[in-house]
Protein backbone atom coordinates (compact mmCIF):
# COMPACT_ATOMS: atom_id res chain seq x y z
CA UNK A 1 0.00 0.00 0.00
CA UNK A 2 1.42 3.36 -0.96
CA UNK A 3 1.66 6.60 0.94
CA UNK A 4 -1.11 7.97 -1.27
CA UNK A 5 -3.49 5.26 -0.10
CA UNK A 6 -2.92 6.43 3.48
CA UNK A 7 -4.69 9.64 2.54
CA UNK A 8 -7.60 7.89 0.80
CA UNK A 9 -11.08 8.97 1.96
CA UNK A 10 -11.83 5.53 3.44
CA UNK A 11 -8.63 5.57 5.50
CA UNK A 12 -9.24 9.11 6.70
CA UNK A 13 -12.75 8.08 7.75
CA UNK A 14 -11.40 5.07 9.64
CA UNK A 15 -8.79 7.15 11.47
CA UNK A 16 -11.36 9.82 12.29
CA UNK A 17 -13.74 7.14 13.62
CA UNK A 18 -11.00 5.83 15.91
CA UNK A 19 -10.06 9.34 17.04
CA UNK A 20 -13.57 10.60 17.77
CA UNK A 21 -14.36 7.54 19.90
CA UNK A 22 -11.34 7.94 22.16
CA UNK A 23 -11.95 11.70 22.29
CA UNK A 24 -15.45 11.01 23.65
CA UNK A 25 -13.93 8.46 26.03
CA UNK A 26 -11.48 10.93 27.53
CA UNK A 27 -13.94 13.80 27.48
CA UNK A 28 -16.45 11.71 29.43
CA UNK A 29 -13.83 10.43 31.83
CA UNK A 30 -12.16 13.73 32.40
CA UNK A 31 -15.29 15.78 32.99
CA UNK A 32 -16.01 13.23 35.71
CA UNK A 33 -12.45 13.43 37.05
CA UNK A 34 -12.59 17.24 37.06
CA UNK A 35 -15.98 17.30 38.76
CA UNK A 36 -14.70 14.72 41.28
CA UNK A 37 -11.75 16.96 42.10
CA UNK A 38 -13.81 20.16 42.31
CA UNK A 39 -17.40 19.54 43.43
CA UNK A 40 -18.50 15.91 43.78
CA UNK A 41 -17.04 15.56 47.27
CA UNK A 42 -19.28 18.20 48.81
CA UNK A 43 -22.29 17.44 46.58
CA UNK A 44 -22.43 13.65 46.84
CA UNK A 45 -20.15 12.76 49.79
CA UNK A 46 -20.58 15.54 52.38
CA UNK A 47 -18.33 15.23 55.43
CA UNK A 48 -16.94 17.45 58.17
CA UNK A 49 -13.48 16.42 56.94
CA UNK A 50 -12.61 17.90 53.48
CA UNK A 51 -9.91 15.26 53.05
CA UNK A 52 -12.47 12.48 53.52
CA UNK A 53 -14.74 14.16 50.95
CA UNK A 54 -11.89 14.06 48.45
CA UNK A 55 -11.07 10.43 49.23
CA UNK A 56 -14.68 9.32 48.72
CA UNK A 57 -14.96 11.39 45.56
CA UNK A 58 -11.78 9.87 44.13
CA UNK A 59 -13.05 6.43 45.17
CA UNK A 60 -16.10 6.94 42.94
CA UNK A 61 -13.64 7.75 40.15
CA UNK A 62 -12.24 4.26 40.68
CA UNK A 63 -15.65 2.59 40.27
CA UNK A 64 -15.33 2.82 36.50
CA UNK A 65 -11.96 1.12 36.58
CA UNK A 66 -13.52 -1.87 38.32
CA UNK A 67 -16.17 -1.99 35.58
CA UNK A 68 -13.68 -1.68 32.73
CA UNK A 69 -12.35 -5.29 32.80
CA UNK A 70 -15.94 -6.55 32.86
CA UNK A 71 -16.71 -4.40 29.83
CA UNK A 72 -13.47 -5.56 28.21
CA UNK A 73 -14.57 -9.17 28.59
CA UNK A 74 -18.11 -8.59 27.25
CA UNK A 75 -17.23 -6.26 24.38
CA UNK A 76 -14.05 -8.22 23.61
CA UNK A 77 -16.16 -11.39 23.35
CA UNK A 78 -18.45 -9.87 20.74
CA UNK A 79 -15.66 -7.92 19.05
CA UNK A 80 -13.82 -11.18 18.37
CA UNK A 81 -17.00 -13.03 17.37
CA UNK A 82 -19.20 -10.59 15.40
CA UNK A 83 -16.73 -7.84 14.48
CA UNK A 84 -15.15 -4.56 15.51
CA UNK A 85 -17.70 -2.15 14.02
CA UNK A 86 -20.91 -3.27 15.78
CA UNK A 87 -19.12 -3.63 19.11
CA UNK A 88 -17.66 -0.12 18.88
CA UNK A 89 -21.10 1.36 18.23
CA UNK A 90 -22.59 -0.42 21.25
CA UNK A 91 -19.74 0.61 23.59
CA UNK A 92 -20.02 4.26 22.56
CA UNK A 93 -23.79 4.31 23.16
CA UNK A 94 -23.47 2.81 26.64
CA UNK A 95 -20.62 5.09 27.66
CA UNK A 96 -22.30 8.22 26.31
CA UNK A 97 -25.69 7.38 27.78
CA UNK A 98 -24.23 6.88 31.26
CA UNK A 99 -22.41 10.22 31.04
CA UNK A 100 -25.54 12.05 29.95
CA UNK A 101 -27.62 10.66 32.83
CA UNK A 102 -25.11 11.97 35.41
CA UNK A 103 -26.27 15.47 34.44
CA UNK A 104 -29.73 14.70 35.88
CA UNK A 105 -28.68 13.15 39.20
CA UNK A 106 -29.98 14.56 42.49
CA UNK A 107 -27.35 15.48 45.08
CA UNK A 108 -26.98 14.14 48.63
CA UNK A 109 -28.96 17.11 49.99
CA UNK A 110 -31.95 15.99 47.89
CA UNK A 111 -31.76 12.20 47.75
CA UNK A 112 -29.56 11.28 50.69
CA UNK A 113 -27.60 8.04 50.41
CA UNK A 114 -29.24 7.26 47.07
CA UNK A 115 -27.34 10.12 45.43
CA UNK A 116 -23.85 8.56 45.74
CA UNK A 117 -25.30 5.12 44.97
CA UNK A 118 -26.80 6.34 41.68
CA UNK A 119 -23.61 8.24 40.88
CA UNK A 120 -21.55 5.08 41.29
CA UNK A 121 -24.00 3.03 39.19
CA UNK A 122 -23.67 5.47 36.29
CA UNK A 123 -19.93 5.62 36.83
CA UNK A 124 -19.94 1.82 36.52
CA UNK A 125 -21.86 2.19 33.24
CA UNK A 126 -19.22 4.61 31.97
CA UNK A 127 -16.47 2.15 32.76
CA UNK A 128 -18.37 -0.84 31.34
CA UNK A 129 -18.79 0.94 28.00
CA UNK A 130 -15.23 2.18 28.02
CA UNK A 131 -14.00 -1.38 28.57
CA UNK A 132 -14.68 -2.10 24.91
CA UNK A 133 -14.00 1.37 23.51
CA UNK A 134 -10.24 1.84 23.54
CA UNK A 135 -9.35 -1.65 22.36
CA UNK A 136 -11.80 -1.48 19.47
CA UNK A 137 -10.63 1.99 18.42
CA UNK A 138 -6.99 0.86 18.46
CA UNK A 139 -7.79 -2.22 16.36
CA UNK A 140 -9.84 -0.16 13.93
CA UNK A 141 -6.78 1.97 13.23
CA UNK A 142 -3.97 -0.62 13.39
CA UNK A 143 -5.76 -3.40 11.49
CA UNK A 144 -6.23 -0.97 8.60
CA UNK A 145 -2.64 0.33 8.70
CA UNK A 146 -0.46 0.02 5.57
CA UNK A 147 2.93 -1.70 5.97
CA UNK A 148 5.34 0.48 7.91
CA UNK A 149 2.59 2.75 9.28
CA UNK A 150 1.36 0.77 12.28
CA UNK A 151 2.89 3.15 14.84
CA UNK A 152 1.50 6.26 13.18
CA UNK A 153 -1.94 4.75 12.65
CA UNK A 154 -1.91 3.42 16.21
CA UNK A 155 -1.13 6.87 17.61
CA UNK A 156 -4.31 8.41 16.13
CA UNK A 157 -6.77 6.97 18.68
CA UNK A 158 -4.24 7.93 21.38
CA UNK A 159 -4.62 11.58 20.36
CA UNK A 160 -8.17 11.34 21.69
CA UNK A 161 -6.68 11.77 25.18
CA UNK A 162 -5.41 15.36 24.70
CA UNK A 163 -8.39 16.24 22.47
CA UNK A 164 -10.90 15.06 25.08
CA UNK A 165 -8.89 16.64 27.89
CA UNK A 166 -8.73 20.04 26.18
CA UNK A 167 -12.45 19.92 25.36
CA UNK A 168 -13.35 19.04 28.96
CA UNK A 169 -11.04 21.50 30.67
CA UNK A 170 -11.86 24.32 28.25
CA UNK A 171 -15.54 23.87 28.97
CA UNK A 172 -14.96 23.96 32.74
CA UNK A 173 -12.77 27.03 32.23
CA UNK A 174 -15.50 28.82 30.26
CA UNK A 175 -18.14 27.91 32.81
CA UNK A 176 -15.94 29.15 35.64
CA UNK A 177 -15.52 32.49 33.87
CA UNK A 178 -19.25 32.88 33.15
CA UNK A 179 -20.72 32.00 36.55
CA UNK A 180 -20.09 32.37 40.24
CA UNK A 181 -18.81 29.54 42.43
CA UNK A 182 -22.29 29.10 43.92
CA UNK A 183 -23.87 28.87 40.46
CA UNK A 184 -21.29 26.34 39.32
CA UNK A 185 -21.86 24.27 42.46
CA UNK A 186 -25.64 24.49 42.12
CA UNK A 187 -26.06 23.60 38.44
CA UNK A 188 -23.12 24.65 36.27
CA UNK A 189 -21.22 21.38 36.73
CA UNK A 190 -24.07 19.55 34.96
CA UNK A 191 -23.53 21.30 31.61
CA UNK A 192 -20.41 19.34 30.50
CA UNK A 193 -22.29 16.09 31.09
CA UNK A 194 -25.24 17.34 29.04
CA UNK A 195 -23.04 18.42 26.15
CA UNK A 196 -21.42 15.00 25.90
CA UNK A 197 -24.39 13.96 23.76
CA UNK A 198 -23.02 16.11 20.92
CA UNK A 199 -19.72 14.20 20.77
CA UNK A 200 -21.48 10.85 21.10
CA UNK A 201 -23.78 11.70 18.21
CA UNK A 202 -20.79 12.63 16.04
CA UNK A 203 -19.04 9.40 16.97
CA UNK A 204 -22.06 7.26 16.09
CA UNK A 205 -22.55 9.05 12.77
CA UNK A 206 -18.97 8.34 11.74
CA UNK A 207 -18.81 4.76 13.00
CA UNK A 208 -21.98 3.65 11.28
CA UNK A 209 -20.32 4.50 7.94
CA UNK A 210 -17.17 2.38 8.33
CA UNK A 211 -16.58 -1.20 7.20
CA UNK A 212 -15.13 -4.19 9.04
CA UNK A 213 -11.34 -4.45 9.40
CA UNK A 214 -9.34 -6.72 7.03
CA UNK A 215 -7.88 -8.69 9.94
CA UNK A 216 -11.29 -9.72 11.28
CA UNK A 217 -12.55 -10.54 7.78
CA UNK A 218 -9.52 -12.81 7.36
CA UNK A 219 -10.38 -14.61 10.62
CA UNK A 220 -13.87 -15.39 9.30
CA UNK A 221 -12.43 -16.69 6.03
CA UNK A 222 -10.17 -19.10 7.90
CA UNK A 223 -13.03 -20.63 9.87
CA UNK A 224 -15.50 -19.89 12.66
CA UNK A 225 -14.41 -17.36 15.32
CA UNK A 226 -13.58 -18.67 18.81
CA UNK A 227 -16.64 -19.72 20.78
CA UNK A 228 -15.25 -18.23 23.98
CA UNK A 229 -12.44 -15.77 23.14
CA UNK A 230 -11.54 -15.20 26.80
CA UNK A 231 -11.10 -18.93 27.36
CA UNK A 232 -8.80 -19.26 24.35
CA UNK A 233 -6.88 -16.14 25.42
CA UNK A 234 -6.25 -17.36 28.96
CA UNK A 235 -5.43 -20.89 27.83
CA UNK A 236 -2.97 -20.05 25.05
CA UNK A 237 -1.81 -16.47 25.69
CA UNK A 238 -1.97 -15.92 29.45
CA UNK A 239 1.70 -15.00 29.80
CA UNK A 240 1.44 -12.24 27.20
CA UNK A 241 -1.81 -11.03 28.72
CA UNK A 242 -0.25 -10.79 32.18
CA UNK A 243 2.95 -9.15 30.94
CA UNK A 244 1.17 -6.59 28.75
CA UNK A 245 -1.15 -5.67 31.64
CA UNK A 246 1.82 -4.76 33.82
CA UNK A 247 3.41 -2.97 30.88
CA UNK A 248 0.49 -0.52 30.63
CA UNK A 249 0.32 0.48 34.32
CA UNK A 250 2.77 3.39 33.99
CA UNK A 251 0.67 5.36 31.49
CA UNK A 252 -2.36 5.41 33.79
CA UNK A 253 -0.31 6.39 36.83
CA UNK A 254 1.40 9.29 35.03
CA UNK A 255 -1.87 10.58 33.57
CA UNK A 256 -4.05 10.57 36.67
CA UNK A 257 -1.34 12.00 38.92
CA UNK A 258 -0.64 14.80 36.45
CA UNK A 259 -4.31 15.63 35.89
CA UNK A 260 -6.95 14.59 38.45
CA UNK A 261 -4.72 14.43 41.53
CA UNK A 262 -2.70 17.52 40.60
CA UNK A 263 -5.89 19.54 40.06
CA UNK A 264 -7.34 18.56 43.41
CA UNK A 265 -4.07 19.11 45.28
CA UNK A 266 -3.37 22.46 43.64
CA UNK A 267 -6.82 23.93 44.26
CA UNK A 268 -7.63 22.38 47.66
CA UNK A 269 -4.19 22.23 49.33
CA UNK A 270 -2.05 24.85 47.60
CA UNK A 271 -4.94 27.28 47.18
CA UNK A 272 -4.25 27.96 43.49
CA UNK A 273 -7.21 29.49 41.70
CA UNK A 274 -9.20 26.88 39.81
CA UNK A 275 -9.29 28.91 36.60
CA UNK A 276 -5.55 29.46 36.68
CA UNK A 277 -4.74 25.80 37.18
CA UNK A 278 -7.18 24.60 34.52
CA UNK A 279 -5.47 26.99 32.09
CA UNK A 280 -2.08 25.59 33.07
CA UNK A 281 -3.26 22.04 32.48
CA UNK A 282 -4.66 22.91 29.04
CA UNK A 283 -1.26 24.32 28.10
CA UNK A 284 0.60 21.34 29.53
CA UNK A 285 -1.60 18.76 27.78
CA UNK A 286 -0.33 20.05 24.43
CA UNK A 287 3.01 18.47 25.35
CA UNK A 288 1.24 15.14 25.74
CA UNK A 289 -0.09 15.49 22.18
CA UNK A 290 3.43 16.25 21.00
CA UNK A 291 4.77 13.21 22.84
CA UNK A 292 2.14 10.94 21.27
CA UNK A 293 2.99 12.14 17.75
CA UNK A 294 6.74 11.75 18.28
CA UNK A 295 6.28 8.33 19.86
CA UNK A 296 4.08 7.12 16.97
CA UNK A 297 6.62 8.26 14.39
CA UNK A 298 9.50 6.76 16.40
CA UNK A 299 7.65 3.45 16.84
CA UNK A 300 7.65 2.89 13.09
CA UNK A 301 11.44 3.23 13.11
CA UNK A 302 12.67 1.37 16.19
CA UNK A 303 9.60 -0.55 17.39
CA UNK A 304 6.79 0.39 19.77
CA UNK A 305 8.18 -1.79 22.56
CA UNK A 306 11.52 0.03 22.62
CA UNK A 307 9.83 3.42 22.68
CA UNK A 308 7.75 2.28 25.66
CA UNK A 309 10.88 1.12 27.48
CA UNK A 310 12.50 4.53 27.07
CA UNK A 311 9.23 6.17 28.13
CA UNK A 312 8.95 4.19 31.38
CA UNK A 313 12.54 5.07 32.30
CA UNK A 314 11.60 8.74 31.83
CA UNK A 315 8.44 8.15 33.92
CA UNK A 316 10.52 6.84 36.82
CA UNK A 317 12.61 10.02 36.74
CA UNK A 318 9.46 12.12 36.44
CA UNK A 319 8.05 10.54 39.59
CA UNK A 320 11.05 11.76 41.53
CA UNK A 321 10.76 15.30 40.11
CA UNK A 322 6.99 15.84 40.25
CA UNK A 323 6.80 16.26 44.04
CA UNK A 324 9.41 19.06 44.24
CA UNK A 325 7.67 20.83 41.35
CA UNK A 326 4.26 20.81 43.06
CA UNK A 327 5.74 21.72 46.45
CA UNK A 328 7.62 24.70 45.02
CA UNK A 329 4.45 26.83 44.99
CA UNK A 330 5.76 28.58 41.86
CA UNK A 331 3.25 28.56 39.01
CA UNK A 332 6.08 28.54 36.47
CA UNK A 333 7.82 25.53 38.03
CA UNK A 334 4.53 23.69 38.48
CA UNK A 335 3.66 24.30 34.82
CA UNK A 336 7.08 23.02 33.70
CA UNK A 337 6.66 19.95 35.92
CA UNK A 338 3.22 19.19 34.51
CA UNK A 339 4.43 19.74 30.94
CA UNK A 340 7.35 17.37 31.37
CA UNK A 341 5.13 14.73 33.03
CA UNK A 342 2.57 14.90 30.23
CA UNK A 343 5.26 14.86 27.53
CA UNK A 344 6.51 11.64 29.12
CA UNK A 345 2.91 10.42 29.20
CA UNK A 346 2.90 10.70 25.42
CA UNK A 347 5.80 8.24 25.23
CA UNK A 348 4.21 5.65 27.55
CA UNK A 349 0.76 5.98 25.98
CA UNK A 350 1.26 6.84 22.30
CA UNK A 351 2.90 3.50 21.29
CA UNK A 352 0.26 1.34 23.05
CA UNK A 353 -2.07 1.47 20.03
CA UNK A 354 0.55 -0.32 17.96
CA UNK A 355 2.24 -2.39 20.69
CA UNK A 356 -0.70 -4.15 22.33
CA UNK A 357 -2.43 -5.40 19.14
CA UNK A 358 0.90 -6.77 17.94
CA UNK A 359 1.08 -9.12 20.93
CA UNK A 360 -2.14 -11.04 20.19
CA UNK A 361 -3.44 -13.06 17.21
CA UNK A 362 -6.44 -11.57 15.42
CA UNK A 363 -8.76 -14.33 16.70
CA UNK A 364 -8.58 -13.06 20.29
CA UNK A 365 -7.04 -9.64 19.73
CA UNK A 366 -10.04 -7.52 20.79
CA UNK A 367 -10.34 -9.46 24.05
CA UNK A 368 -6.61 -9.50 24.75
CA UNK A 369 -6.00 -5.81 24.05
CA UNK A 370 -9.09 -4.67 25.96
CA UNK A 371 -8.45 -6.90 28.97
CA UNK A 372 -4.77 -5.92 29.34
CA UNK A 373 -5.48 -2.21 28.95
CA UNK A 374 -8.41 -2.09 31.33
CA UNK A 375 -7.06 -4.34 34.08
CA UNK A 376 -3.98 -2.12 34.08
CA UNK A 377 -6.37 0.81 34.47
CA UNK A 378 -7.50 -0.49 37.88
CA UNK A 379 -3.99 -0.47 39.31
CA UNK A 380 -2.52 2.44 37.42
CA UNK A 381 -5.58 4.68 37.19
CA UNK A 382 -8.42 3.70 39.50
CA UNK A 383 -6.30 3.34 42.63
CA UNK A 384 -3.82 6.13 41.91
CA UNK A 385 -5.84 9.26 42.88
CA UNK A 386 -7.02 7.57 46.10
CA UNK A 387 -3.56 6.33 46.98
CA UNK A 388 -1.97 9.67 46.10
CA UNK A 389 -4.47 11.61 48.22
CA UNK A 390 -3.84 9.32 51.20
CA UNK A 391 -0.05 9.42 50.75
CA UNK A 392 0.00 13.19 50.43
CA UNK A 393 -1.96 13.62 53.66
CA UNK A 394 0.01 11.16 55.76
CA UNK A 395 3.47 11.17 54.19
CA UNK A 396 3.75 14.17 51.89
CA UNK A 397 4.23 14.50 48.15
CA UNK A 398 7.54 12.62 48.19
CA UNK A 399 5.58 9.40 48.69
CA UNK A 400 3.32 10.31 45.78
CA UNK A 401 6.38 10.66 43.57
CA UNK A 402 7.75 7.33 44.81
CA UNK A 403 4.37 5.75 44.02
CA UNK A 404 4.68 6.92 40.40
CA UNK A 405 8.30 5.75 40.20
CA UNK A 406 7.30 2.35 41.58
CA UNK A 407 4.40 1.92 39.15
CA UNK A 408 6.68 2.86 36.25
CA UNK A 409 9.32 0.39 37.40
CA UNK A 410 6.75 -2.42 37.32
CA UNK A 411 5.93 -1.50 33.70
CA UNK A 412 9.61 -1.30 32.78
CA UNK A 413 10.29 -4.83 34.05
CA UNK A 414 7.28 -6.19 32.14
CA UNK A 415 8.33 -4.44 28.95
CA UNK A 416 11.84 -5.84 29.19
CA UNK A 417 10.43 -9.35 29.62
CA UNK A 418 8.17 -8.93 26.56
CA UNK A 419 10.73 -7.10 24.44
CA UNK A 420 11.41 -10.09 22.24
CA UNK A 421 7.74 -10.20 21.27
CA UNK A 422 7.59 -6.64 19.83
From TrEMBL:
Q: Which UniProt keywords apply?
A: Cell membrane, Membrane, Transmembrane, Transmembrane helix, Transport
Q: Where are the transmembrane segments?
A: 29-48, 55-76, 88-114, 159-181, 187-206, 245-266, 278-298, 307-326, 332-356, 368-391, 397-418
Name used for this protein in its record = MHS family MFS transporter
Query: What is the scientific name of the source organism?
Result: Sphingomonas colocasiae
Report which superkingdom the organism of origin falls in.
Bacteria
Q: Identify the Pfam families for this entry.
A: MFS_1, Sugar_tr
Name the membrane topology term. Multi-pass membrane protein
Question: Which Gene3D superfamilies does the UniProt record give?
Answer: MFS general substrate transporter like domains
Q: Where in the cell is it found?
A: Cell membrane
